[in-house]
């Protein structure tokens, strides 16, 4: 070790379109994760010493994409049962796939409890960002219950069992994929770095009325991850949709839904909202990057592309998906990261 202050490192993400027409700078530390949005079922693997989650989210109207999460610290990776993980001493990435089954509840509960146990054992006791990629999300399971509701019950049971150790869920995404089964991945960190942020325009998801399901999803609208040392922090923006209060607004109006979603994000990431949580940052829509746009109906893709592109700077990295959204009346959902 040379003299001087120890740099503890940070994570970032690089979103690529395939074919890989740009190469990334070799990270100073290592690769925490690769998430591949592919044209078929994939699951998890360890490739070149890094975890990879391949999820079936690309159909005939959209292009494959890859997200690479890199750390400035040395990374070690491994297998944990069915899951893959990587850690750098500050951040844990964990991914697992649950294959198709008639009813998901109990398996989802076990999947989440196993994941939480693993993260806690290694000291990553704060959740920073979670993605739940759910096949047939608005279809019925074998008992006639919507798969998203089935999933939400299992997840809620796991978090209820861990109530004394984990608080609320962090920023999250619950979105459809093109084949049955559930892909879960998350980033957890050492304690003391996260702040969960709500949106004054939206009812907290954990207070949704019961008509949206017996067990409310308890995710935050965004999670602020404080930077280490003098690094800037990261604001993870949850999958955001055209919901005001708890209601879907602009039903059957794609333009209205896109604009309302962007407005939700703008208010969520703005100075006034972040200040309520003691986060002294001021983001605008133009700061949203590493964007994922989920569009339910292929016919809406051109309009959504135009409208989202027009709202964001030309350099913003955006990946487009044509998948189901978790309420049948939601036509679009948008997420991203502000730094
Ligand atoms: C919503 O705002 C849209 O179940 O983890 C967004 C983000 C949504 C995360 C989840 C669901 C989830 O209610 C749906």
Mind telling me the CATH superfamily name? Answer: RutC-like
CATH structural class: Alpha Beta
Q: Quick one: how many beta strands?
A: 19
Question: What is the mean pLDDT?
Answer: 92
Determine the strand fraction and express it as a percent band.
25-35%
CATH architectural group: 2-Layer Sandwich
Q: What oligomerization state is this entry in?
A: single chain
Tell me the strand order in the biggest sheet: 6-7-8-11-9-10
Provide the succession of SSEs. Answer: EEEEEEEEHEHEEEEEEEHHEHEE
Radius of gyration: 19 Å
Structural classification: alpha+beta
How would you describe this structure in keywords?
single chain; 339 residues; alpha+beta; 60s Ribosomal Protein L30, Chain: A; 6-stranded mixed sheet; 5 helices; 35% strand; disordered N terminus; binds 3-(2-carboxyethyl)benzoic acid
Describe this protein's structure.
By secondary structure, the chain is of the alpha+beta class. It has one domain (26-338): RutC-like (60s Ribosomal Protein L30, Chain: A, 2-Layer Sandwich), CATH 3.30.1330.40. Helices cover 19% and strands 35% of the residues. It contains five helices and 19 strands. It has helices at residues 105-121, 147-161, 254-269, 271-275, 301-311; strands spanning 11-17, 30-38, 43-47, 50-56, 65-71, 76-80, 83-87, 91-98, 126-135, 171-177, 182-189, 194-197, 222-225, 234-241, 243-244, 247-248, 288-295, 318-322, 332-338. A six-stranded mixed beta sheet has the order 6-7-8-11-9-10, with helices on one face. The protein has a six-stranded mixed beta sheet with strand order 12-13-14-19-17-18, covered by helices on one side. The protein has a five-stranded mixed beta sheet with strand order 1-5-2-4-3, with no helix packed on it. A hairpin with a 2-residue loop joins strand 6 and strand 7 (83-87). The chain starts with 10 loop residues before the first strand and ends with a strand. The structure holds 3-(2-carboxyethyl)benzoic acid.
């Amino acid at each position: 070790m040379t003299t001087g202050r120890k740099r503890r490192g940070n994570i970032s993400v690089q979103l690529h379109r395939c074919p890989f027409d740009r190469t990334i700078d070799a990270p100073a530390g290592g690769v925490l994760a690769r998430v591949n949005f592919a044209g078929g079922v994939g699951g998890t693997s360890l490739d070149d010493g890094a975890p990879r989650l391949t999820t079936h989210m690309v159909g005939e109207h959209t292009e494959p994409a890859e997200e690479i999460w890199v750390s400035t610290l040395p990374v070690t990776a491994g297998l944990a049962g069915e899951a893959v993980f990587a850690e750098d001493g500050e951040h844990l990435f964990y991914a697992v796939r649950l294959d198709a089954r008639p009813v998901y509840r109990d398996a989802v509960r076990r999947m989440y409890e196993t994941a939480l146990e693993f993260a806690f054992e290694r000291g990553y006791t704060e959740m920073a960002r979670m993605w739940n990629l759910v096949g047939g999300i608005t279809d019925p399971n074998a008992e006639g219950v919507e798969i998203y509701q089935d999933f939400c019950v299992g997840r809620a049971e796991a978090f209820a069992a861990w109530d004394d150790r984990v608080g609320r869920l962090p920023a999250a995404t619950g979105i459809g994929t093109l084949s049955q089964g559930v892909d879960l991945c998350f980033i957890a960190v050492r304690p003391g770095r996260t702040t969960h942020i709500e949106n004054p325009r939206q009812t907290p998801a954990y207070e949704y009325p019961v008509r949206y399901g017996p067990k409310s999803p308890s995710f935050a609208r965004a999670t602020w991850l404080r930077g280490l040392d003098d690094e800037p922090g990261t604001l993870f923006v949850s999958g955001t949709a055209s919901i005001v209060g708890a209601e879907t607004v602009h039903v059957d109006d794609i333009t209205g839904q896109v604009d309302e979603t962007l407005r939700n994000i703008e208010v969520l990431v703005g100075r006034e909202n972040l200040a309520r949580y003691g986060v002294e940052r001021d983001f605008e829509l133009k700061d949203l990057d590493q964007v994922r746009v989920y569009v339910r109906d292929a016919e809406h893709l051109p309009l959504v592309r135009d409208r989202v592109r027009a709202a964001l700077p030309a350099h913003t990295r955006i990946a487009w998906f044509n998948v189901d959204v978790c309420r049948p009346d939601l036509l679009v959902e948008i997420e991203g990261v502000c730094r």
